[in-house]
């Protein structure tokens, strides 16, 4: 889903909007029975009729249901839900007591303007920014938590919600509640995390694939690696750059947990977001006269000029020494087919692939160069390396967000949160296995 352009800047983080008192925290709930049953549903279905939708928007002062939500209450389907404010922030309806007030107190504590606790100040880095409490003018008693939309800067956001920890119930849960939660995913204690939902952009079809909580609950110790890797597959290849960047983000959160002994988190999640659309990239083929060596199909080049242009690849420039510069856009399927056909005769040659950035801030550096001699007529593996393999030195620049969400079950403590730490370590191990294998 393309992000909505900002209409006005949100208020400063940690301050209430509209004079409604101190800010409170909140996010997509995914813990209570109703919440988990609603968690990770596919993107919202058909929109209501024009009249009903217009009436609802007027009542909510221009706010609309969040279209790319993957977990938690869905607005229009459940009692609560996530809304998109016209200024680009998201609104999460405050849950009934004690969950809502507890979550509100958590955000109040972390975003207190007078806070000088280094542990809590660092924690802010791993949470959505918080902008206070909001209520629609027509229903001033309906309280919403106003939060940063972590997906807003992405063009085609791929989103996954993963519940972390060995227990999805808090220390004050009844025996019935414990049994209820354990029965939903008996492997939680062993695996340490549960995929609540995902939404993955596939570049080949320009569409999203969604998975709900039933998908996550079906994963076992043997299948959880493949289950998680599905989130990082864009229909062409595994986005190893996003996997590597995600590991780095989780490791920082793990370091925070290992350094603090004042809070324990139950039924809390990590929200993963990465950019699904392919960014404009230039592939420079040099040190080979492609037309002479039969690398390109006949008719593609004529007298060193440009003969073919489509939405997959077009020749930008060709020179007398046979160097060709081409631009590759989001749809690579025909590009792959083109080279498979061209290399069917097993031509040999020397080829240098150089990836250059055409968009400022792209993860690929102009110095990134992959040289392969004697390719034995197969350029496909090299292209896959270009688009699907990330060099270690640039993994940190990949556009990925990993934020902690869901704080209705956060409690004071004087010990490390071993259950959450266990889940983070297991998730890192799974991601490392995906990256390595």
Please state the CA-atom Rg, rounded to the nearest Å.
25 Å
Biggest pleated-sheet summary? 5 strands, antiparallel
Q: What is the CA-CA span between the terminal residues?
A: 31 Å
What would the principal axes of the Cα set say about the shape? globular
Ranges where pLDDT stays below 50 over 5 or more residues in a row are 1-8, 15-48, 280-377
What is the secondary structure topology, with strand pairs?
Elements: H1 33-38, H2 50-59, E1 64-65, E2 82-84, E3 90-93, H3 99-110, H4 118-123, E4 130-134, E5 144-147, E6 157-164, H5 175-184, H6 188-191, E7 193-202, E8 207-211, H7 213-217, H8 224-229, H9 240-259, E9 263-265, E10 268-275, E11 281-286, H10 290-293, E12 313-318, E13 324-328, H11 333-342, E14 350-357, E15 369-373, H12 380-388, E16 400-405, E17 410-412, H13 418-436
Helix pairs in contact: 9-13
How would you explain this protein's 3D organization?
This protein is α+β, with helices and mostly antiparallel strands and 437 residues long. It has 13 helices and 17 strands. It has helices at 33-38, 50-59, 99-110, 118-123, 175-184, 188-191, 213-217, 224-229, 240-259, 290-293, 333-342, 380-388, 418-436, and strands spanning 64-65, 82-84, 90-93, 130-134, 144-147, 157-164, 193-202, 207-211, 263-265, 268-275, 281-286, 313-318, 324-328, 350-357, 369-373, 400-405, 410-412. A 5-stranded antiparallel β-sheet has the order 1-2-3-5-4, with no helix packed on it. Strands 8-7-6-10-16 form a 5-stranded antiparallel β-sheet. Strand 12 (313-318) and strand 13 form a beta hairpin. The longest helix has 20 residues, at 240-259. The radius of gyration is 25 Å and the shape is globular. Residues 1-8, 15-48 and 280-377 have low confidence and may be disordered.
């Amino acid at each position: 889903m393309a992000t909505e352009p900002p209409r006005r800047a949100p208020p400063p983080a940690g301050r209430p909007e509209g004079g409604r008192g101190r800010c409170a925290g909140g996010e997509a709930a995914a813990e209570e029975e109703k919440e988990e049953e609603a968690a990770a549903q596919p993107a919202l279905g058909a929109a209501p009729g024009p009249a009903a939708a217009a009436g609802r928007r007027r009542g909510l002062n221009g706010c609309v249901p969040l279209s790319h939500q993957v977990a938690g209450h869905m607005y229009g389907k459940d009692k609560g839900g996530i809304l998109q404010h016209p200024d680009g922030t998201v609104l999460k309806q405050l849950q009934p007591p004690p969950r809502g007030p507890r979550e509100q107190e958590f955000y109040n504590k972390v975003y207190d303007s007078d806070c000088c606790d280094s542990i809590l100040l660092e924690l802010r880095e791993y949470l959505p920014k918080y902008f206070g409490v909001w209520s629609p003018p027509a229903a001033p008693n309906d309280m919403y938590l106003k939060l940063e939309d972590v997906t807003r800067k992405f063009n085609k956001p791929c989103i996954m919600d993963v519940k972390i920890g060995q227990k999805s119930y808090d220390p004050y849960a009844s025996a019935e509640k414990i049994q209820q939660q354990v029965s939903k995913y008996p492997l939680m204690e062993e695996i340490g995390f549960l995929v609540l939902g995902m939404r993955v952009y596939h570049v080949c079809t320009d569409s999203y694939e969604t998975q709900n909580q039933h998908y996550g609950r079906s994963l076992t110790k043997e299948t959880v690696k493949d289950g998680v890797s599905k989130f990082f597959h864009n229909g062409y290849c595994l986005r190893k750059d996003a996997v590597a960047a995600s590991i780095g983000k989780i490791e920082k959160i793990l370091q925070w947990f290992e350094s603090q002994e004042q809070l324990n988190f139950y039924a809390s999640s990590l929200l993963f977001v990465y950019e699904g659309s392919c960014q404009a990239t230039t592939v420079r083929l040099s040190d080979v006269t492609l037309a002479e060596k039969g690398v390109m199909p006949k008719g593609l080049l004529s007298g060193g000029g440009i003969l073919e242009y489509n939405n997959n690849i077009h020749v930008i420039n060709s020179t007398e020494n046979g160097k060709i510069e081409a631009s590759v856009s989001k749809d690579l399927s025909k590009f792959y087919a083109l080279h498979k056909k061209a290399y069917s005769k097993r031509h040999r040659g020397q080829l240098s692939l150089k990836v250059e950035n055409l968009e400022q801030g792209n993860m690929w550096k102009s110095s990134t160069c992959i040289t392969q001699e004697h390719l034995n007529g197969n350029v496909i593996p090299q292209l896959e390396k270009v688009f699907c393999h990330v060099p270690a030195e640039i993994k940190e620049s990949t556009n990925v967000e990993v934020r902690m969400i869901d704080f209705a079950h956060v409690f004071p403590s004087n010990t490390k949160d071993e259950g959450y730490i266990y889940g983070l370590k297991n998730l890192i191990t799974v991601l490392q296995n995906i990256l390595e294998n």
